[in-house]
Amino acid sequence: MTTTATTLKGQPLDRNVLDSMLRRRMFYTPSFEIYGGVSGLYDYGPPGCALQANIVDIWRKHFILEEDMLEVDCSVLTPHEVLKTSGHVDKFADWMCKDPKNGEILRADHFVEDVLETRLRGDKEARGEKIEEKEEADAKKKKKKTKGQAAVKLDDDVVKEYESILAQIDNYNGEQLGDLIKKYDMRNAATGLQPSPPVSFNLMFQTSIGPSSNLAGYLRPETAQGQFLNFAKLLEFNTGSMPFASASVGKSYRNEISPRAGLLRVREFLMAEIEHFVDPEGNKKHHRFHEVEDIELALLDRHTQLSGLTTVKHVPIGKAVSEGIVDNETLGYFLARIHLFLKRIGVDQTKIRFRQHMANEMAHYAADCWDAELLTSYGWVECVGCADRSAYDLSVHSQKTGVPLIVRERLDEPKIIQEWEVDIEKKKFGPFFKKDGKTVEAAVLATTQEQREKFAKDLEANGKMVIDVPGVADGKVEVGQDLLKIEYRTRTENVREYTPNVIEPSFGIGRILYSLMEHNYWTRSSDGGDEARAVLSFPPSVAPTKVLIVPLSSNKDFAPFIRKLSQKLRTVGISSRIDDSSATIGKRYSRNDELGTPFGITIDFQTIKDGSVTLRERDSTRQVRAGEDEIVAAIKSLVDHSKSWADIESELPIFEGQELEIR
Amino acid sequence: MTTTATTLKGQPLDRNVLDSMLRRRMFYTPSFEIYGGVSGLYDYGPPGCALQANIVDIWRKHFILEEDMLEVDCSVLTPHEVLKTSGHVDKFADWMCKDPKNGEILRADHFVEDVLETRLRGDKEARGEKIEEKEEADAKKKKKKTKGQAAVKLDDDVVKEYESILAQIDNYNGEQLGDLIKKYDMRNAATGLQPSPPVSFNLMFQTSIGPSSNLAGYLRPETAQGQFLNFAKLLEFNTGSMPFASASVGKSYRNEISPRAGLLRVREFLMAEIEHFVDPEGNKKHHRFHEVEDIELALLDRHTQLSGLTTVKHVPIGKAVSEGIVDNETLGYFLARIHLFLKRIGVDQTKIRFRQHMANEMAHYAADCWDAELLTSYGWVECVGCADRSAYDLSVHSQKTGVPLIVRERLDEPKIIQEWEVDIEKKKFGPFFKKDGKTVEAAVLATTQEQREKFAKDLEANGKMVIDVPGVADGKVEVGQDLLKIEYRTRTENVREYTPNVIEPSFGIGRILYSLMEHNYWTRSSDGGDEARAVLSFPPSVAPTKVLIVPLSSNKDFAPFIRKLSQKLRTVGISSRIDDSSATIGKRYSRNDELGTPFGITIDFQTIKDGSVTLRERDSTRQVRAGEDEIVAAIKSLVDHSKSWADIESELPIFEGQELEIR
C-alpha cells in the first residue's frame, strides 16, 4: 500500500522536509507541545487557521449558498440516550489488541497491515528487487519494530494472499482480524509475542453533564445527529417542501486508539456535513443531475476491491448511475459536486479517486457509501464520505421518542384505499380482558388483511373468533362480536406520509487541508545554487494571505505608501501582510513563498517619485509594474479568478529590473 | 435587581412573546428537544446560525484584520496538567449547596439572590407600593418556590442591608454566602429548610484521553490557555516584535450547576478571545490610544459598587485613564474598541455599561477587569470581559515546564551591571556534598547581594563560609573556598528579558447574540387592527438574510426573473431567500420581518413587461421601484452601509401602489 509521493511538479516529496517547514511557518503545531504534547491533538497557527477559514468559506458558497441549504449549529455535548439510539454506543468502535508482555495497545487492523507490509518488503529485498525510496524510508522508521525480521523470500502464493488481504483490510471484523493474526502468526516486534485477540473499543469521549454526575454524555462523533433531531423543525422552516438539505460545520471527536499520521488521524477535528433529505420513492432522482452528468470521476468500486485490485475506472457520473455502479442520481450528483469542490480549492486532479465501501466496512447506518480519497505521502486518504444513510436515523429516533419524523405530502390525486378495518369496542374490551387487555388488543391490531378477512367470516358465522396471543391464557383467546367489529371499507387518502432517506456528504476539513498542502507543495532551486526553496502554490482564493507588501528598506518615507496600499486592499476585501523586517527582499519573498502568498508588492524609491509599485507572482516569480490602483485592481481580478497572470502580463508592463535579487 | 425591559421603540418587552417567536422562527431551539432536552444546551437554526456567523465575521474584521492579530485555532480537549498549572482545576468553581431533604442542588449566590429579591418584593407589596409588571411576572413564575411567603413588611434598615448585599452579590465567597444564609435564615421554599453550607463545584467537564484511560483531560473553559502555550511560537511568527495580539474563535465549556436564563447561561458556548501581549514597563501605553480617547463610555467602577450603588458615570476613556479609574491605556483602548464593536453590530447604545470587577469577584488570574454589560429583560448581562491578566499565565506555564515564555529585547544602549556573582566548582561541589549537593547549591545561588558580599569577605578571611540550609545536617553548612568563588564583577547586557503582560478582551458570542435580538425587537400594529406584528430591526450587515424575493404569485412566468435576480445578488455577495409560498404578500413580508430581513423585492406582472421591481424597507415598510440593476446596486450600498434608506428614497421613485397590501 506504500506509494511514491510527488510534489506539484512531480518531484519526489520528502515528507520530513515538508513537515518541518509547515511547523516552522506555524501552519500547525502539536497542541500543548511545551507540556510534551498529546498525540492526535494539533493547533493551527495563523496560516493554517486562515487556510482552514478559506476552505470552509468556499465550502459554504459551493454547497450551502448554491443550493439554499439550511445551516444549523448544534451542541457537541450529547446525552447517552441519543447516541444509544443512533447505534454509536454499541457500534462506533475500533478493534484493539494488547501485547501480553509490555501492555502496548495496538489498533488491530493497523497491526495486521504493518506486519504484512514488512513481510512483503522483506520478500522484495530477498528477491533483489528495487525497493522504492519511500518504502525504504518507511522501513527505516519501523526498524525498531521490525528488528530481527530478515529479508525472507515468500512463496508466490503467499505474496498474493498478503496483497489480497491488504486490498480489503477495511473489510474485516475483530474476529477475522484475530484469525489472520493467528493464521499468519503475526507478532509484535517489540516483544516477539502475538497480541491478545482484538476487543472492541468505543471511540467516543465520555463525560457527565450537570453537578450530580447522573447524566452521562459524549462528545459527538459526527455533526449529523443534531441535524436529524431537528428534522421536523427544519422541514417546517422550509415551509414543508421537499427535498431539502441541512448542513453544519463544527468540531467532532474520536478517541483514536493510537493516533499517528499527523493531521490525518486526530482526536478533535472540524467536519462539514450535509444531510440531504429525499423521498425514497422515484429512485432518488435529482433535479440538477443533468448539470453534472458529463463530469468524469475516477471510480474504484466494491467488486474491483473484493477481487483484490485497486484499478480505477474513469467514468462520466451519468453513465456510472445509469449502469448501476453508483446507486442513484442524488448520490451521483453529490459525488460530482464534491469533485468540483475539491478541484476549486486546488486539489491535484490526478490525485483524487472515489472508492466505494465494502459491506463490512460501511458504518452501521449506511446503505451505500463512497469516499473521496486523496493521494498523499501516507497513501490514499479518505477525505470526504458520501453515504446513503437510508431512513435509518430518522426511523430509530422517531421510534425511541415517539415523535414523528416524517413528511406529510398532499396527494395531487387522492388515493382510494379498500381494506379490512378493525374497530375495538374500547368500553367493553378493556374491562372484559382486564390485565391482558392491551396484549390482546395489540395482537388483534397486528393482524394481516388475510387474517382479518377470515376473522370477519368467523364472527359472522359463529359470533366469535379465536386468535393466537402468546402469553395470554393457553395462547388461544376467544373474542366475541360484542367486543369488536371487522369490516371491509373504502376510504380516501389525501395525504401521503413517509420517512425521508438521507444522502450525507461528510467532509473532514483537516484531512482536506493537509492533502491540499501536500498537493500544492514543490521546491525550486535558487539561482545562487544553494538549497532548494519551498513553495506552496495555493490558488489565490484559498491562500492564507493574498498579498505581501515589501518595502525595499525600513526607510520612513515608505510608511505612508504602505499604509495607503494596505488600506486600499482591505477596502476591496483582500488580506495583506507587511514585511518590513531587515531581511533582504529575496529572503522575505522566499519566506513568503513558504507561506503560499500568491502576490507580492515591492515599494521602492521609484514609488515615492511616481506612485508606481511592482507586483510579483509567486509561481513564476515574474513581475509587472504599474500605479497602485491598477495593481490593486489586478490583484482583485486574480483573487476572484476572473483573470489569469497571463492576462495581467499582457495588460501591464513587465518589470525585469530587480529580478535576480527578487527570485 | 429586576428591571423593566423595553423594546427598540421603548414598548414594554414581553419576553415570553419574544421567546416563542424566536423559537418558532428557529433562531434557536433546545438541543435534543425530542428527547426532553438537556438544560443549558441549545442549537441555532438557520437564522440564528447566520446571525452568529455575521457577528463573528464583523468581529474578525473589527479586531483581527484591523490590528493584524494572529488568529489561532487550538484544541478544546486539554490535559489535566495544563489546567492544574493555570489554576482552573483548583479555582474554576462555583458555590453549590444542597437541600438536606429533597436533594435539590442550588447555586449558592443565585439562591441568596432569589430569597432576598422575594423578600424585598413582599415588603413592597406590604407597603402598598406598585410592583412593576416584570417583577410581577417573575414573582408568578417563582410562586411554587415562594409559596407561603406572605407580603411581609421589613424594617427600613433591613431593606437597605438586603439591597447592599444584592449590589455586591458577586463579591462573596462560599463561606460568606453560607454566613448570609444562616444570618438571614434563608430557606428553600420547596422544603422549608436551610440548604447545606456551600461547597465548591468545579465547572469543567472531565473526560479521559486515549484507550487506557490514564490521561485525564477537560473540555477547555476558555480559549486563552491554547494561546498562552503557543506564545513563544507566535512571537517568532511575528518576527520577534512586540506588542502583538493573538486571537481565537471557538467553543468553550462550563458545567453550570443549574442553568436557567435561556441562551444567557449555557454549558457550551462560542467565545472570541484576544490575548494582547504588552511590555509591563512604560505604563502599558497603546500607540493608537489617541484614536479613541474622546469616546465616552458608561462606567460603573468598583468603589461605587462597594458603596452599594449602581450609578453609572459617562466619561471619555482618555479622562478615565488619566484619572486612574481605568488602569492603563491598553486596557482603555480595548474598552473603547469593544464599545465601537457593540455599536457596529447594532447593540442599543442606551443599554451598555462597563462594570469593574470587585476584588473577590475577579478570576484568579486577573489584576483588573471590566465587563461590558448589556441590559436585557434578565437585567444587566456580562457579555464581554476585558481583563488585565498581568504576567500570571505565561509565568506559571513557564515555571511548570521550564520553557521560557519571555521576550528578548535588544537594548538600544547596553546596560552596565555590577554585582556579586557566584561560581560553583561543579566537579568538586557535587562529590563533596553527595546527596545534599543540589540543595546546598540552590541555597548558595538564592543568596542576596548583601549576603554574597559578606560571604566573599568570610571566604577571604577564613577560607570558608557558613550558610543556613534548612534540612541539611543541623541546618548550618560549611563551604570551603575550593568549592566556590564569589566575586564582584562588571558585565554588559545587550538584551533585556521580560515576561509580557496580557490584556484579554473575551467575548461571549451567544450572550451578545441574545442581547442583540432583544435590543432590535419591537412590534407594530397592523392596519387591519389585528394583533401586533414582531419586527427584528437588525442592521443590514448583521441581518441573517439580506433580501427576500417575493413573486406576486406562483405564476411560472416569474421564475426566470427570480433566478436572474438571486444570481445577480449572489454575484455581489448578498444572500437572498425566495418565498414563493401561496401566502399573501403581506403575510410573507410579516414572516420576514420576524426573521429580521431588511429588504424585500416584489416581482409582479409589471416586472415581466419592463423588468422593474419594487424594493421594500423593513422598518418603514416604504417602497421604491426601479430596474433590477438599480435595485441590486441600491441594496449593495445599503448592506455595506455606504447609503441610508433616505438616500435611496431621494434617488429612486417612491412606489405606493400596493402599500396597503404589503404593510
Could you explain the architecture of this structure?
Two copies of one chain form a homodimer. By secondary structure, chain A is of the alpha+beta class. The first copy, chain A, folds into four domains: 15-87 and 204-393 and 502-508, 2-Layer Sandwich (BirA Bifunctional Protein, domain 2), CATH 3.30.930.10; 94-201, Herpes Virus-1; 413-498, 2-Layer Sandwich (Signal recognition particle alu RNA binding heterodimer, srp9/1); 545-662, 3-Layer(aba) Sandwich (Rossmann fold). Chain A contains 26 helices and 29 strands. In chain A, the strands form eight sheets. Chain A has a nine-stranded mixed beta sheet with strand order 3-10-11-21-16-15-14-12-13. In chain A, helix 2 (46-65) packs antiparallel against helix 15 (329-345) and helix 17 (426-433) packs across helix 18. The longest helix of chain A has 20 residues, at 46-65. The two termini of chain A are 39 Å apart. The model of chain A is unreliable at 133-137, 139-148 and 659-663 (pLDDT under 50). The interface between A and B is large, with 74 and 74 residues. Chains A, B: One of its GO terms (molecular function) is transferase activity.
